[in-house]
């Protein structure tokens, strides 16, 4: 039931999702995200790896021979409208620039 509701909300017109600290390793969630991205979902990622967070799921490192983007990485690139590598604790405590990036996600 939760999966169904999750997918329904993500696939709504103009849907947005802020992803905080998710490593993109759950195939069921990733499948729902990729389906929603195909329907227009836009993402903002907060993670120490920032926009590169899905590259950690690629079996071939970016600098490796034969590297190419996985379908998940391609989807994320298409949907990404922002990212932050900073911890939320410092963002809200003292980092005005990062805080404004996050605020724009909710306003725009």
Mean pLDDT: 90
Rounded to the nearest angstrom, the distance between the terminal CA atoms is 30 Å
Order of helices and strands: HEHEHEHH
Q: What is the approximate shape? A: globular
DSSP E strands, number: 3
Give the helices and strands, then pairings:
Layout: H1 2-10, E1 16-20, H2 27-38, E2 42-46, H3 71-79, E3 80-84, H4 88-94, H5 96-107
Parallel strand pairs: 1-2, 2-3
Helix pairs in contact: 1-2, 2-3, 4-5
Question: How is this structure best described in words?
Answer:
- With 108 residues, the chain is an alpha/beta fold.
- 45% of the residues lie in helices and 14% in strands.
- Strands 1-2-3 form a three-stranded parallel sheet.
- The protein is globular, with a radius of gyration of 15 Å.
Would you summarize the structure shown here?
The protein has 108 residues and is an alpha/beta fold. Helices cover 45% and strands 14% of the residues. It contains five helices and three strands; from the N terminus they run H-E-H-E-H-E-H-H.
List the keywords.
globular; single chain; alpha/beta; 5 helices; 108 residues; 3-stranded parallel beta sheet
């Amino acid at each position: 039931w939760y999966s169904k509701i999750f997918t329904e909300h993500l696939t709504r017109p103009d849907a947005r999702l802020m992803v905080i600290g998710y490593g993109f390793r759950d195939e069921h969630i990733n499948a729902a995200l990729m389906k929603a991205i195909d329907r227009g979902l836009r993402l903002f990622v907060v993670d120490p790896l920032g926009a590169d967070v899905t590259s950690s799921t690629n079996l071939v490192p970016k600098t490796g021979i034969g590297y190419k983007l996985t379908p998940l990485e391609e989807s994320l690139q298409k949907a990404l409208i922002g990212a932050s590598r900073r911890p939320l604790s410092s963002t809200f405590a003292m980092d005005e620039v990062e805080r404004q990036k996050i605020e724009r996600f909710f306003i725009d």
